[in-house]
Write a structure and sequence with these properties.
The protein is an alpha+beta fold and 257 residues long. It has three domains: 90 residues, no CATH class; 45 residues, no CATH class; 101 residues, abc- transporter (atp binding component) like domain (Coagulation Factor XIII, Chain A, domain 1). The chain has six helices and 13 strands.
Length: 257
């Protein structure tokens, strides 16, 4: 009995043996068209006497129907050995067959994109400091994966340009109004800071302290503001009850909570 397999690409039939097929999981390369296919899928067993080797090529499919096995455009000797360069030995290369190169290329690309995405996620705030123009793209990315792009908080690059603390003893003697101008000296937008107001007595000792968030000190028209643009200023106004405090001085400082 002989084992014979058929190339699905060009219809060439080949005599093979089980050891060759099992050595590579059934993968063979056609010596005629160089196509790689699984020899087990078209494998049949025939009697040695049923194998014919005609000198002329046969049409695809004829071999399977009449058990006449011959390759296309090749010479065969009566004992079944091929005499041209495309002998059965060409079916099994010394080098492993490279398969699914397109799949691995795509997989590598996806892994690279995933790695870039992880780096962008971990350093998204720093990236906006280095290149402020990337913020819209990072925000779209975060909208997709469900995160946010926080604004930088470089407190040393913020400053209080001016401030003033006043009372109106005629109209509202119990209310003290504080005004200030906060400036962002950075080259990138920054998150709005909190303001800490410290009231002092005549000796400069702190007698009261309070922290105000951006929602408390922003003007009404700026309530939706989330950040300070680079090289820009914002005006701050605070009205608070200073009854019985007796403050004669104050300090104002910026901080991030």
């Amino acid at each position: 009995m002989a084992l014979v397999t058929l190339c699905p690409g060009c219809g060439t039939t080949f005599r093979v043996n089980a050891a060759q097929l099992q050595a590579r999981g059934g993968d063979v390369r056609c010596g005629h068209c160089q196509r790689v296919f699984n020899g087990f899928t078209t494998l049949i067993t025939v009697n040695e006497s049923a194998i014919e080797y005609p000198q002329q090529p046969v049409a695809k499919g004829a071999a399977a129907e009449g058990y006449s096995f011959a390759s296309h455009e090749e010479n065969a000797t009566p004992d079944g050995e091929r005499t041209d360069a495309e002998s059965p030995a060409d079916l099994f290369d010394d080098e492993p067959v490279k398969k699914s190169s397109g799949f691995w290329g795509l997989a590598s690309l996806l892994l690279a994109l995933a790695l870039i995405g992880q780096i962008a996620f971990a350093n998204r705030t720093k990236l906006t400091m280095i290149k402020p123009g990337v913020r819209p793209y990072l925000e779209r990315y975060c909208a997709f994966i469900g995160c946010q792009v926080p604004y930088p908080r470089e407190i040393r690059q913020l400053g209080i340009e001016s401030s003033d603390l006043q009372k109106n003893p005629v109209r509202q003697p119990e209310v003290t109004t504080m005004r200030a101008v906060i400036s962002n000296h950075a080259s990138f937008p920054q998150a709005l800071p909190a303001l800490q107001l410290l009231l002092q007595d005549a000796q400069g000792q702190v007698i009261a302290s309070r922290i105000f968030t951006a929602e408390e000190y922003l003007q009404e028209e700026d309530k939706t503001r989330q950040f300070i643009q680079p090289q820009h200023e914002i005006d701050v106004r605070l009205d608070f009850d200073s009854t019985n405090l007796g403050a004669l001085g104050y300090r104002l400082q910026l901080l991030y909570l």
